[in-house]
Amino acid sequence: MPKIMKYILPVLIAVSGFLIYDNYYAVVNEQNIVDKEKKVIPVDKKAEIIQVVFETNVGEIIIDLEPEKAPITVENFLAYVDNGFYSNTLFHRVIPSFMIQGGGFEKEMKIKRTRATINNESFNGLLNERGTISMARKNSPNSATSQFFINIKNNRQLDANGKKAGYAVFGKVSQGMDVVDKIALTPTLKAGQFSDVPKDDIVILSVKRKQAVAEIANEANKEKQAFIAGEHYIVLDEPYATRDSSKIEVLEAFSYGCGHCYGIDPDIEQWLEKQPADVDFVRFPAIWNSAMTLYSQAFYTAVELKVHKLTHQPLFEAIVVEQKKLSNATELASFFEFYGVSKKLFIETFNSPKIKKLVELAKVRTTKYTLASVPEVIVNGKYRVNPMRAGGQQQLFELVDFLVDKERQKLIN
Question: Is residue 220 part of a domain?
Answer without folding.
Answer: no
